[in-house]
């Protein structure tokens, strides 16, 4: 019986979507929908109450909105940068809208002809969609310790409005003169929104760790166990976050005599090099280093690069806990306990000091140019110090 009810309900939704797309929402009657679904009109009312109820169900179960909230919550937990979060969401929504172009045009084109009941139904669902997006953006912003010039709810509403407008123009005219490609539109859209977001003062100050402290941390880890040594090595040799490291698996390695790369598959998808040299000291080679030695020593078949005591993948929180144990009792030149985010800052500063451009660093880290701008000032400070020391030596 339940299977039959589900089948009938789905036939009504499919029939509604088909008719809404062909002749519009206002021109479609419940009788037409029932006839196309091969049921009587009373059955439609029993399932949905009226056309407004059916419209709500048809929209919510379309490709654009199906499992929308749950999907965004899952993505938020996997995305490490706001730039990637915005681009992933915008790209996904445009692809979903393309699956139901006629429905989109019907919703947009007929909006002035809708009854107040229809307007209320669509308005409620768009409000819910904006709320899901606002929560998605807020999760990433909070994790990156950012602040916005506009409320997150307004950013979400503006983002959805621009995406719907772009889709409507595309479906109506195929007009492309404003943008060379969809990617160009998406990048411009993301940069527009990133201009409304800035790092909090505590994050804007880049505090990289000095070489002697970094090497002390690595040596302390080496004395504890091989996995801790490998973990600290990856933190300082790649500039990856604890979350990105937690998601790494053995198959994500690309290794030969001339290079060692790790493939990041979640959040900002990219490849990052594993450096042999860390702040003037070499830690093995591309094929023989703390990480390869740790993996070679293992007897298990687990996919993850790092494991906890139970043999399960090491989580982001567990990585942070290991960092705290290893760095216990150590202090930075500022008199503070070193924090794990400083491994990324140290790596980024080192790469820039070696001549890497900000654009290339953006590709390796998955961070936007705006997020990386604070590093410019820190690099200038270090260059000034080195020049002063060199001038002093030259005067001897």
UniProtKB/TrEMBL annotation:
Record-linked PANTHER family: HTH-TYPE TRANSCRIPTIONAL REGULATOR PKSA, HTH-TYPE TRANSCRIPTIONAL REGULATOR RUTR
GO annotation (BP), single: DNA recombination
Gene3D superfamilies, per the entry: Homeodomain-like, Intergrase catalytic core, Tetracycline Repressor, domain 2
Lineage: superkingdom: Bacteria
InterPro entries with a match to the protein in the record: DNA_brk_join_enz (IPR011010), Homeodomain-like_sf (IPR009057), HTH-type_TetR-like_transc_reg (IPR050109), HTH_TetR (IPR001647), Integrase-like_cat_sf (IPR013762), Tet_transcr_reg_TetR-rel_C_sf (IPR036271)
MF (Gene Ontology): DNA-binding transcription factor activity; transcription cis-regulatory region binding
Record-annotated DNA-binding residue ranges: 29-48
Domain HTH tetR-type residue range list: 6-66
Identification of the protein by name: Transcriptional regulator, TetR family
Organism: Chroococcidiopsis thermalis (strain PCC 7203)
Pfam families referenced in this protein's UniProt entry, alphabetically: TetR_N
Keywords, comma-separated and alphabetical: DNA recombination, DNA-binding
């Amino acid at each position: 019986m339940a299977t039959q009810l589900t089948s009938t309900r789905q036939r009504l939704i499919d029939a509604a979507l088909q008719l809404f797309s062909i002749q519009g929402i206002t021109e479609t009657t419940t009788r037409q929908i029932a006839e196309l679904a091969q049921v009587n009109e009373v059955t439609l009312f029993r399932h949905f109450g009226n056309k407004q109820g059916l419209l709500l169900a048809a929209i919510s179960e379309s490709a654009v909105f199906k499992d929308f909230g749950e999907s965004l919550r899952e993505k938020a937990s996997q995305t490490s940068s706001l730039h990637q979060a915005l681009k992933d969401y915008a790209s996904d929504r445009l692809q979903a809208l393309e699956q139901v172009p006629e429905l989109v045009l019907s919703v947009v084109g007929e909006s002035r002809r809708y009854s107040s009941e229809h307007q209320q139904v669509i308005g409620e669902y768009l409000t819910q969609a904006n709320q899901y997006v606002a929560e998605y953006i807020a999760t990433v912003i909070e994790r990156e310790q950012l602040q916005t010039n506009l409320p997150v709810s307004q950013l979400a509403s503006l983002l959805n409005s621009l995406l719907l407008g772009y889709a409507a123009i595309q479906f109506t005219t195929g007009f492309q003169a404003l943008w060379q490609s969809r990617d160009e539109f998406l990048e411009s859209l993301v940069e527009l929104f990133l201009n409304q977001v800035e790092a909090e003062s505590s994050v804007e100050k880049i505090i990289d760790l000095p070489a002697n402290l970094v090497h002390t941390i690595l040596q302390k880890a080496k004395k504890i166990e091989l996995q801790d040594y490998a973990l600290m090595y990856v933190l300082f040799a790649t500039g990856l976050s604890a979350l990105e490291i937690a998601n790494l698996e053995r198959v994500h390695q690309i290794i030969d005599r001339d290079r060692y790369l790790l493939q990041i598959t979640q959040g900002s998808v990219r490849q990052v090099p594993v450096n042999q040299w860390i702040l003037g000291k070499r830690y093995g080679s591309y094929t023989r280093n703390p990480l390869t030695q740790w993996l070679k020593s293992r007897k298990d078949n687990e996919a993850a690069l790092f494991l906890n005591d139970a043999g399960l993948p090491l989580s982001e929180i567990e990585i942070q806990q290991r960092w705290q144990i290893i760095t216990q009792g150590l202090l930075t030149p500022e008199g503070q306990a070193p924090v794990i985010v400083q491994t990324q800052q140290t790596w980024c500063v080192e790469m820039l000091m070696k001549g890497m451009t900000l654009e290339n660093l953006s590709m390796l880290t998955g961070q936007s140019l705006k997020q990386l701008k604070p590093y410019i000032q820190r690099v200038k400070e270090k260059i000034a110090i080195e020049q002063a020391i060199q001038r002093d030596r030259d005067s001897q």
